[in-house]
Amino acid sequence: MVRHTATSVVTIERFIIEQENLHPEATGQLSGILYDLALAAKMIANKVRSAGLADILGSAGTENVQGETQQKLDIIANEIIVKAMDHGGRLCAMASEESEEIIPIPDHFKQGKYVLLFDPLDGSSNIDVNVPVGTIFSVVQRVTSGGHCTMEDMLQPGHRQVAAGYVIYGSSTMLVYTTGQGAHGFTLDPSIGEFLLSHPDIRIPEHGRYLSVNDAYEQHWTEPVRALMRRYRGLDGKREAMNVRYVGSMVADFHRNLLGGGIFAYPPNAKNPGGKLRVLYECNPLSFICEQAGGAAFDGSERMLDLVPTALHQRTAIYVGSKCDVEIAREMLG
Ligand code: AHG
Ligand code: MN
Ligand code: MN
């Protein structure tokens, strides 16, 4: 990694170029994808910031003062990403939590060698109560050749990701990404509209302080999961109790634990017997970032990034965060 002095201002653009220069073989295509995503993030941040005005200017399904029908913010965010990414010649397809099918690149644009998978707005039910939401993305290289991408290109295990990241629309907007050389965080300076390097080479503490889980599902957990949660809470006397923090936006919960240490868990429950969170749009990208920061991710039976997906919108259980805390899950559930 290129080292910067404490006083140097490093825009995301400069950082991406410097990272690319470390790889003489790089074509610049992946860098282009990352710039475009940073632009989409700024556009979504702008929409999220004014979401509270929706009731004044018109809410979803109603007409606003200009007589235009308002759309749900997840759909707006989805469209922003598709429009920012479809014409660059770097992607051969996209897939989004908000679209049933693969999103092809229109024939009049050049087809590229990468696939983008994303959750345009994570935690969107939190929008109405002014709680942080986010965007999550994952990039893989296509494995088929010629013509349009196929399902085979989409359904790749997480360890094949070449880049992944998330944006959190919180008290400030931050973008965190990895291309496999550490995880790096950028904070949007709204006065100049630039993401500036604020968290180079993030390292997650080995043991965590925070436990993030929705324990309203406790009655539906298996006995080993209940025992695991008792362990994290210090109730079996085998470790110090962790603090419970649960926002209900995976991005926000994950981000806090990445910086402060801890574990985010979404075990299977009666309502979601296979887990709730999506392998391709949520679990794989955040697991890649977590591993790059020195943490780990487990799906209840194996390393999250080794899970071979069989469906686009597949869900899974997940335990992601500080290495030692994920190790406990592996021992007690594996
Ligand atoms: P999304 O808004 O993209 O559908 O994701 C919501 C997810 C995730 O952000 C969060 O961690 C989880 O749902 C919360 O689920 P519970 O309400 O079941 O705890
Ligand atoms: Mn989500
Ligand atoms: Mn979503």
List the helices and strands and how they pair.
Layout: H1 12-21, H2 29-49, H3 54-57, H4 73-85, E1 91-96, E2 103-104, E3 114-122, E4 133-141, H5 151-154, E5 163-169, E6 173-178, E7 183-189, E8 194-199, E9 210-212, H6 223-232, E10 243-244, H7 250-260, E11 262-266, E12 277-278, H8 279-292, E13 296-298, E14 315-316, E15 318-321, H9 323-333
Parallel strand pairs: 1-3, 9-10, 9-11
Antiparallel strand pairs: 1-2, 3-4, 4-5, 5-6, 6-7, 7-8, 11-15, 12-14, 13-15
Number of helices: 9
Strand proportion: 15-25%
Quote the CATH topology of the largest domain. Fructose-1,6-Bisphosphatase, Chain A, domain 1
Q: What structural class is derived from the secondary structure elements?
A: alpha+beta
Q: Please give the largest β-sheet.
A: 8 strands, mixed
Widest β-sheet, arrangement of strands = 2-1-3-4-5-6-7-8
What's the pLDDT, averaged over the residues? 93
Count of DSSP strands: 15
How far the N terminus sits from the C terminus, by CA atoms, comes to 35 Å
Query: Which CATH top level class of the largest domain fits?
Result: Alpha Beta
